[in-house]
Design goal:
By secondary structure, the protein is of the alpha+beta class. It has 2 domains: 3-42; 84-174, no CATH class. 62% of the residues lie in helices and 12% in strands. The chain contains 8 helices and 3 strands, in the order αααααββααβα. It has helices at 3-14, 18-27, 32-42, 66-76, 81-98, 115-124, 126-138, 152-174, and strands spanning 99-105, 108-114, 141-147. It has a 3-stranded antiparallel sheet with strand order 2-1-3. Strand 1 (99-105) and strand 2 (108-114) form a beta hairpin. Helix 2 packs across helix 3 (32-42) and helix 6 (115-124) crosses helix 7. The protein is rod-shaped.
Length: 175
């Protein structure tokens, strides 16, 4: 770097005139850093803001403690067992209340009841209800779950059961 470039650089950094920068550079034997220190000591240069950097989290204003965050989130999910069970039963109730169990025969709805009615019937009389549902398949009844939720997987299973019974009936008719 030639002398002119050094003077310009010092002049910009110290915010002094060309003559003052040149004089300070001559007194510092061409060393930019010494010239800057000299100008600061004379009070001619504006001292830059001193900034510090730290890697410790205590000095940082925007620091978020991971431990505190994990503790808060675990406390949010730390509901008593009773509240968790109440929430679970509430979700189950919504599912079985809003969906219907439909029995169709020859494209006519025979039975259309909420799913909870079917569940109660199965709980009260498991074997008779199972027998009635199976026998219904032999009399061309088809079953489906309809409602707000997507029950396509359940309905596919019910359709496969109906198709299997139809195949058995066809085999029996061939005899």
């Amino acid at each position: 770097m030639d002398e002119f470039e050094k003077v310009e650089k010092l002049r910009q950094r110290a915010d002094v005139s060309y003559e003052e920068a040149k004089k300070a550079l001559e007194e510092a034997n061409g060393d930019l850093l010494d010239a800057m220190i000299l100008l600061e000591a004379q009070g001619k240069a504006v001292k830059g803001e001193q900034t510090t950097r730290s890697t410790t989290y205590d000095d940082q204003k925007d620091y978020v403690s991971v431990v505190d965050t994990v503790d808060k989130s675990s406390r949010k999910n730390d509901k008593p067992l009773g509240q968790k069970l109440k929430h679970l039963f509430h979700l189950i109730w919504i599912k079985i209340r809003d969906n219907k169990f439909v029995v169709e025969r020859n494209d006519n709805n025979i039975i259309d009841v909420p799913v909870w009615v079917l569940i109660v019937a199965i709980m009260l009389a498991f074997w008779p209800v199972c027998v009635i549902l199976i026998v219904g398949l032999f009399f061309n009844c088809r079953y489906a779950i309809l409602g707000a939720d997507d029950a396509s997987k359940i309905n596919n299973v019910l359709d496969k059961a109906g198709d299997a019974v139809d195949k058995v009936k066809d085999e029996f008719d061939k005899l």
